[in-house]
Write a structure and sequence with these properties.
Involved in urease metallocenter assembly. Binds nickel. Probably functions as a nickel donor during metallocenter assembly. GO terms for molecular function: nickel cation binding; unfolded protein binding. The chain folds into two domains: 2-70, HSP40/DNAj peptide-binding domain (Sandwich), CATH 2.60.260; 72-132, 2-Layer Sandwich (Alpha-Beta Plaits). Helices cover 21% and strands 33% of the residues. The chain has helices at residues 24-27, 83-94, 113-121, 151-159; strands at 2-8, 18-22, 31-35, 41-45, 57-60, 65-70, 72-79, 101-102, 107-109, 125-132. The strands form two sheets. A six-stranded mixed β-sheet has the order 2-6-5-1-4-3. The termini are far apart.
């Protein structure tokens, strides 16, 4: 089994690379197994230096290169009649310290019906969609040193010290 152990800053354009589509949850881990789009199983054991962003490249000691894509996953999509309404929703969701993906026309977060109801209460539209999840790297991204905690639980654990 090929084991990918390093991150690459850049890859020359003409390099043929395989890709692997990974969920946000997996892309936060430094060690995991995955199956490439071609069906081959691989292992990943990276230095712990943050989330693998979509479009990132990783490599084996032997020089095999792999491109990481964000896999579409079930998300809540928030849309609003005006940019200001969307801004307001981003503020309220940000206050809850949940991983939040921002785009010019919509916000995305992992399925959470309590948050969805709150956002609907602000007069915005919420729907479940399949979409790659690439949240803002915020404070929660720095809390990955305790891998037993989810990013949200890590926030709450650190907040009570």
């Amino acid at each position: 089994m090929k084991i990918y152990t390093q991150r690459l800053e850049q890859v020359s354009v003409d390099t043929e690379v395989e890709t692997v589509a990974l969920s946000f949850d997996t892309r936060q881990k430094s060690r995991f197994r995955a199956t490439l789009n071609s069906g081959i199983d691989i292992g990943v054991d990276l230095p712990r230096t943050g989330i693998l962003r979509s479009g990132a490249y990783i490599a084996t000691e032997q020089g095999d290169i792999l491109k990481v894509d964000a896999k579409p996953e079930q998300l809540m999509q928030v849309t609003a009649p005006t940019a200001f309404d969307l801004l307001k929703a981003a503020y309220h969701l940000g206050n809850r310290h949940v991983p939040l993906m921002l785009t010019p026309s919509a916000l995305y977060f992992e399925p959470d019906h309590v948050l969805a109801e709150m956002v609907k209460g602000l007069g915005l539209t919420v729907q479940e969609v399949e979409h790659p999840f690439e949240p803002e790297s915020g404070a929660y991204a720095q809390h990955s040193h305790d891998h037993r905690l989810s990013p949200i639980k890590a926030i709450h654990a650190h907040a009570h010290h």
